[in-house]
């Protein structure tokens, strides 16, 4: 086998945590009244995120020396999957919790850790990711936003796009060129932690298909970024963003996005779930949820064991996000009716799911590119074995 | 994975590497058990691995079935160890000599007790598409009786209708017209449990075979050149390889998880593994053959040993459609609120092997 997914399950102690989360979620989102959000397309609610913070469920992996609970990747998995299943409004803290906290732990300076980690844990600072640019999507290393040395820091110029949450975030972690392009485009890149209130920053909304203000354009004009806001070492940006992806890729957010739709379908369209054909199709979905969850959990467990399951994570993301789209297709076919965006809870959720499905296989790197990355390492592995 | 299982896998891989040549395959295609290979398997105790005193559990039996799949081994080892010796052993009856066949609880099976003594009843009926049924010296099966299901140990059938699956694996239909059983005992498990176990073993063999096709395809894509470069450099080919790797990983993990599942999760875990096996079989054969081009569509090339098995195993011990139906019926019956608790149910009791 060229990939390693070991069977695992939740321990008694992890199940206790889950019970706590389930009780919390049941109180927050009484069934039948709440229109669930769809994964990371859900709304941002700083208030809700701060409630999670009070439970100790933000920045869970941060160790005690930085004020965190020092929980494991699996414990974070347990909390996150329950929130996604409920369709909770998780967007405010999402990037900080999933991406920035681990990146800071791995690459950040002592000062950065002391400053930002407690703010992430306490729900006091929201982060967003400034990677994509109008000319740089999949080919991320081609970014042109650049920072030039000045006294005590850097002067940043350029433009980011599709920046989720830049309109409410406090900081944008910005991938930019800190050395002129010199043949190797993966060299000379750095990540700067940029305060969105700095002079010279403009954030312009971009509306998604559902009319929702989710992402933005961010313009930097001579923005001063102090030295201490460079994440890790200058020039280490490419290594950082590619290794962050292992965390980003395979979590429950990569296969549970449309789960609330299937749940509400069963609740409100039960008569459409009758008969052998419907049972067969629903059974396939349930089987796939079961297996994908085992795979995703297995990756979390191996992160906790100190491994770097990069290919495994890429495979889970590709399969999971493709599956999230299939769920919407199957539910729509079983519902077997014209879409009515203004109808009941199910109608509204189906409409929302239908028009957000395209984003599932784009964000965080498209599936085509992901497959290319995975293929290279599978082939390398096979070459070694031969 | 425990060291014992790793050792078991190495032993089997080595045995099969030595003994799965053209001679063995030709014999098997004619319904003849490859004698030398089988003798080695009997000697090492592998054919009886499912017997209660062997100390082996489902994880070991699943490892055996995976190894059979990996080698496309032309022997009914998964059935003998995982089903026949298990079912017979569970009744406390003594094992029989020679190849012990096992009925599959095929939907067209119909076997019942029609008289005789409780320990040696007379049975009548038909066992459908029994793996290696004609070659078996004895056959274990479940029979119906007024007092519930009974495990019977039957002599070789005299009325045999030979059959095979796409991979030339014997699937023989056996008729018993008032035949006295060699031994019998009340069944400790029902037909559903036998079917579940068979399905898990087929899913395990599928994981092994599909994994092997992936290995072959990765190696071939790296070596075969067109347009002056290895076909592995073409993105369309890479996508085939990645999807194959995904489905192989999915069925592999699903099977290993199912082997550890306790009573609360077993039904879903096994059904999900069989559905995953169906998906893997479909994707891996279609994409695997596409990667190999014309050479893969020939008898010359070993790919067909795997793809024909995958195409056959998809539908044995319940088609994946039947298994998805089982899952769906349960999920729809349990309702919306049970959906997530079902999907996220822990393996219970938490197996130690799963927590390392
Ligand atoms: C909802 C949403 C939220 C997002 N949030 C953020 C965010 O917060 N921060 C951020 O920085 N970015 C964000 N993104 C951007 C996301 O990372 C990019 O959309 C993604 O990397 C793809 O870039 P692109 O959209 O420019 O597409 P392109 O790169 O132009 O790709 C277009 C198509 O071409 C294909 N393609 C491109 N190159 C190749 C190749 N080498 N081989 C095969 N096919 C190829 C792609 O797969 C795709 O199908 C978000 C996107 C979405 C949809």
UniProtKB/TrEMBL annotation, chain A:
PROSITE patterns: ACYL_COA_DH_1 (PS00072). Keywords: FAD, Flavoprotein, Oxidoreductase. Pfam families: Acyl-CoA_dh_1, Acyl-CoA_dh_M, Acyl-CoA_dh_N. Its cofactor is FAD. Residues 13-124 form the Acyl-CoA dehydrogenase/oxidase N-terminal domain. Residues 279-379 form the Acyl-CoA dehydrogenase/oxidase C-terminal domain. InterPro entries: Acyl-CoA_DH_CS, Acyl-CoA_Oxase/DH_mid-dom, Acyl-CoA_Oxase/DH_mid-dom_sf, AcylCo_DH-like_C, AcylCo_DH/oxidase_C, AcylCoA_DH/ox_N, AcylCoA_DH/ox_N_sf, AcylCoA_DH/oxidase_NM_dom_sf. Residues 128-223 form the Acyl-CoA oxidase/dehydrogenase middle domain. Belongs to the acyl-CoA dehydrogenase family. PANTHER family: ACYL-COA DEHYDROGENASE, ACYL-COA DEHYDROGENASE FADE34. This is Acyl-CoA dehydrogenase family protein.
From TrEMBL, chain B:
Residues 195-308 form the Acyl-CoA dehydrogenase/oxidase C-terminal domain. Keywords: FAD, Flavoprotein, Oxidoreductase. It holds the Pfam family Acyl-CoA_dh_1. Its cofactor is FAD. Belongs to the acyl-CoA dehydrogenase family. This is Acyl-CoA dehydrogenase. It comes from Pseudonocardia humida. The lineage of its organism: Bacteria, Bacillati, Actinomycetota, Actinomycetes, Pseudonocardiales.
